[in-house]
From TrEMBL:
Signal peptide annotation: none
Pfam families on file: OMP_b-brl_3
Every Outer membrane protein beta-barrel domain range: 339-595
Compartment(s) where it occurs, according to its Swiss-Prot or TrEMBL record: Cell outer membrane
Keywords assigned by UniProt, alphabetized: Cell outer membrane, Membrane, Receptor
Source organism: Chryseobacterium gallinarum
Protein name: TonB-dependent receptor
Keyword Zinc-finger included in the entry's annotation: no
Record keyword Repeat present: no
Length: 694
């Protein structure tokens, strides 16, 4: 199996570079922007870097809004917990409406009849490639007058689960106003956690077997106000102000059996933690047409806010009350983030050239009290990205060739990391038949460490066990290859991808002896490298050629290998999976989702993905939609983690949220629209860094 896969990728690589060299030496070839020829009866057009979907009259009539149409795409799904659209392949998904970044509520504000087509980029263009794994662009019709509004609520009857939202848009002439509000609330009082630490220390054998019950939850609110002015074939201006309000808490008590060699002690404990922030964000976008073939765009996003994080954990011997550990951590992080981007697009006869420069900066001032005492320190994360790419087509062969230059400059009190990386990308496509396509993509890019990994914060996890970051981490270097075969007709929409991903300087979490605090520390290192390869099969099957019955499936046989800094090889094999059965008949719809959780590598641990076993039913009557369903039928949501045999500490944890077990929910939605909005073809979409927590 391995030899076959390596051989295929070697041949693919030889093909890529030989084709690229040939294209560089050919002059005067008349080409055009990537296109595809396909039968009119099919609703999917496959390009080298994207698929384009259109929808028939039946689908448009059944959908409440554009979000319902997205659920019908073979590689998209409705996340039942967040009630948002995600990719079945995982990773980060970015949504656009006519090129402008869109929220879930913005997508809901589009009436199905307004949707012309949907572009599904499984290989994002350069301007989005560092931000998302998948890009969805919804193209709509536009007129100069219209308004739309709606509201919905989805809640559980027997526990604290609520998703609610409301939106409104109004268009008059060249001006558009939008307002959005969403609320996600969780309040669970029965989370059960069993964790075990087993290790050798100073010639003794220690074991901590802990059972804990938690009351935890969070509240996330988002408010957005948007103004757009569009002068066709001249300029577009958009100003967006949005505020994210977040708070979370966890309060847990428990007991444990602590063993040192043959001596046992009964311990009691409590662990409380929480965090909160309010992020006001200003996003200004401006684009200007220059002649018929050029367009310049500018985007600036800024935010300034404070994140408060606290953790209090105590453990003591039950009989005597003698303290085992006492952990109090308080972190106040003042964060200023700015993102700026300038881009230019020129249309040639031979194709399209896109170029740009983006800079993102986050400055964080930390006020910290923890096990190491009180400290004040600042960190700065700066990333610059220059990019250019050209796309074109010659006969049945299409291509997109890009080159970028990335600079990562991270500065903390202990260390400064500065590195420039060349980031090339090659995409080649060949149309085998009208409904069959073969594509190859190869890329190389750096990935900066996340803020918690770089943090110097210290917290206590268990007796003799602490956790801390590593300010001396370097960025990862990722080389990715994919070879994809696509096939579609009235009944099938199928993709088979051979993938190989090599990561140099892999950021790896592991246990190490800690001389400062004694015992072990869970921290981060730059390992030597990591590899991930396998086959991903995704698609949908419609036995009757319509939405009466649709089967979606993802199967991903995968091998994972990590070589740590000491040279030890860690390996894991898995078969990722996800299945959806759905049916639509007149005004009724039914959906069932399930998976079989599998272990995947994450640093020093193997983690399972979240289990799913959910069913939902909805009925649409005019502008109203009534919904009901059940999450995690017959089971609680659960999560498992276990350390690898190479780990210095044998760690296992099993978490179950009993509130989720067979959780019954009800939903009500109202959506109304009249006329259509004016949208802009926005070319730049950016986001400031997330809140810095530990």
């Amino acid at each position: 199996m391995k030899k076959t896969i390596y051989t295929l990728f070697l041949l693919s690589g030889i093909f890529v570079f030989s084709q690229e060299k040939q294209n560089d030496t050919v002059e005067g070839t008349k080409t055009k922007e990537i296109q595809a020829v396909i039968l009119k009866s099919q609703r999917k057009k496959q390009f080298a870097d994207k698929a384009v979907y259109t929808f028939d009259k039946e689908a448009l009539e059944k959908a409440r809004y554009a979000k319902d149409l997205l659920q019908t795409l073979p590689e998209l799904q409705l996340d039942p917990v967040s009630n948002t659209i995600t990719s079945t392949k995982g990773g980060t998904t970015l949504f656009l409406i006519n090129g402008i970044e869109a929220t879930d509520l913005h997508i809901r504000s589009i009436a199905p009849a307004e949707v012309v087509k949907v572009e599904y980029y499984d290989i994002p263009p350069a301007r989005w490639s560092t931000r998302a794994d998948t890009v969805i662009n919804i193209l709509t019709r536009s007129t100069e007058t219209g308004y739309v509004f709606g509201a919905d609520s989805f809640f559980a009857l027997n526990t604290g689960f609520l998703n609610s939202s409301a939106y409104a848009n109004y268009t008059k002439g060249k001006n558009n106003f939008g307002l959005e509000y969403s609320l996600n609330l969780r309040d669970y009082n029965d989370r059960r956690v069993n964790s075990i630490y087993d290790y050798q220390l100073d010639g003794k054998h220690y074991r901590s077997d802990e059972d804990r019950a938690d009351h935890f939850g969070y509240t996330f609110q988002s408010v957005a106000l948007r103004y757009t002015r569009l002068v066709p074939d001249n300029y577009a201006l958009q100003v967006k102000l949005n505020t994210d309000i977040f708070s979370r808490f966890s309060k847990g008590t428990g007991q444990s059996i602590f063993t040192a060699d043959n001596s046992n002690e009964e311990h009691a404990m409590f662990k409380n933690n929480g965090s909160d922030y309010v992020i006001p964000k200003l996003d200004v976008y401006y684009s200007k047409k220059i002649g018929e073939k050029d367009e310049v765009s500018i985007n600036v996003v800024g935010s300034h806010y404070t994140t408060n994080t606290s953790e209090t954990a105590k453990e003591w011997i039950t009989g005597s009350g003698l303290s085992v550990y006492d952990n109090d951590m308080m972190l106040k992080a003042k964060q200023t983030s700015v993102v700026g981007e300038l881009a230019h697009v020129h249309d040639f006869t031979a194709g399209k050239l896109s170029s740009g420069y983006r800079i993102s900066s986050s400055s964080i001032s930390n006020d910290l009290n923890n096990l190491a005492g009180y400290s004040q320190y600042k960190v700065n994360y700066l990333e610059q990205y220059f990019y250019t790419e050209f796309s074109g087509k010659a006969d049945q062969f299409s291509y997109r060739i890009g080159a970028g230059l990335t600079n990562i400059h991270n500065k903390s009190a202990e260390n400064t990391f500065d590195e420039w990386s060349f980031t090339p990308k090659v995409i080649l496509g060949y149309q085998l038949k009208n409904n069959q396509n073969l594509r190859y993509t190869g890329s190389y890019s750096p990935v900066s460490p996340w803020s918690s990994a770089l943090s110097s914060n210290v917290v206590q996890l268990a007796p003799n066990i602490i956790q801390r970051g590593n300010p001396f981490l370097k960025s990862q270097q990722v080389f990715s290859n994919n070879l994809t075969y696509s096939f579609n007709n009235k009944y099938f929409d199928f993709n088979a991808t051979l993938f190989y991903r090599y990561t140099d300087r892999i950021i790896n979490q592991y246990y190490v002896l800690d001389n400062e605090f004694g015992g072990y520390a869970l921290t981060y290192e730059n390992g030597k490298n990591a590899q991930r390869y396998g086959v991903q099969l995704t698609g949908s099957y419609k036995p009757f050629g319509n939405s009466l019955l649709v089967v979606k499936a993802v199967l991903t046989p995968t091998s994972e290998l990590v070589r740590n800094s000491q040279g030890a090889l860690i390996k894991n094999d898995l078969i990722g999976n996800y299945f959806v059965l759905s049916s639509e008949y007149k005004s009724f719809s039914l959906q069932y989702q399930f998976n079989i959780p599998v272990y995947s590598l994450s640093g020093a641990f193997l983690n399972t993905n979240e289990n799913q076993n959910n069913v939902f039913v909805s009925y649409k009557h005019k502008n109203w939609t009534f919904s009901t369903g059940m999450y995690w039928i017959g089971m609680p949501s659960e999560y498992k983690t276990k350390s690898l045999s190479e780990s210095a500490v044998d760690y296992r944890v099993h978490t179950q949220i009993m509130n989720n077990k067979s959780m019954f929910v009800l939903g009500l939605s109202y959506d109304f629209s009249k006329g259509k909005k004016t949208e802009i073809q926005r070319k730049l979409n950016n986001e400031t860094a997330p809140a810095a927590t530990f």
